[in-house]
Amino acid sequence: MKLNLEWRWSVRSSLFLLIIIVVPFVQALHIDTKWEKIVEQAQTIFLFGSFVFTLVLTLKYPFNAKQRAFWLWAALWWLVLLGRDQNWGRQMWPGYSIAVYHSIAAVLILGLVLMLSWPQLRQGIGYYSRRPFPVWDFILATVAFLLADAVERGRWIAQFILYYPQYDDLLEELYECPFMLALFSVSCYMQWQTIKELKQKRA
């Protein structure tokens, strides 16, 4: 199966790269570490908004069965990312048994896996594997995620970007921002390409 990789560098890619480069320098501002909570709350809103946005476009436009199945699956991915961001509910609803949070994680992840048994979804994955895929946005999303993970887990690369240990949580959250933005960019690019083709056929 040959992938259709789109290697064109875009303005979006430049913006994501700039954010990744600038993030460590935020420490030089010596801002209050409480900003970490504000950034985290903004990410929660963004992830939920991405879920709603993807779902609304999927239901609004006349996608065929395989396209619709793929984007319903993509919408569920946004919910899984939201669940992970909220530590599977611990941030929003603290105080419950650990079994409750494990159940939320299990339901969301199991939903992703079980949907793969849906023939239309497998056809949709095959279909979109042949559609133009914005490689640079995905690479930058991956880089941002790995840097956030490095700061969170204290990996060796963290010593080059974390100058003040008290900013570890803030830096992690800030690196997750270009990760989410670039991932949303990939999703929007692919979905909007399909929508444009649908509009052209109807014109």
Task: Describe this entry's structure for a reader.
By secondary structure, the protein is mainly alpha-helical. It has one domain (5-23, 33-89, 96-202). It has helices spanning 11-22, 35-60, 65-85, 98-115, 119-128, 135-153, 168-202, and strands at 5-6, 133-134. It has a two-stranded parallel ribbon with strand order 1-2. The longest helix is centred in the C-terminal third of the chain and has 35 residues, at 168-202.
What's the short version?
The protein is mainly α and 203 residues long. The chain has helices spanning 11-22, 35-60, 65-85, 98-115, 119-128, 135-153, 168-202, and strands spanning 5-6, 133-134. It has one domain (5-23, 33-89, 96-202).
User: Helical amount among residues, as a percent range?
Assistant: 55-70%
The major beta sheet can be summarized as:
2 strands, parallel
**Basic shape:** globular
State the distance separating the first and last CA atoms: 32 Å
Number of domains: 1
- Total count of helical runs of at least 4 residues: 7
Order of helices and strands: EHHHHHEHH
What is the oligomeric state here? Answer: single chain
Q: If you average the pLDDT, what whole number results?
A: 91
Can you count the beta strands? 2
Secondary structure class reads mainly alpha
**Rg from C-alpha positions?**
19 Å
Strand order of the largest sheet: 1-2
Tell me the strand percentage band.
under 5%
Low-confidence segments: none
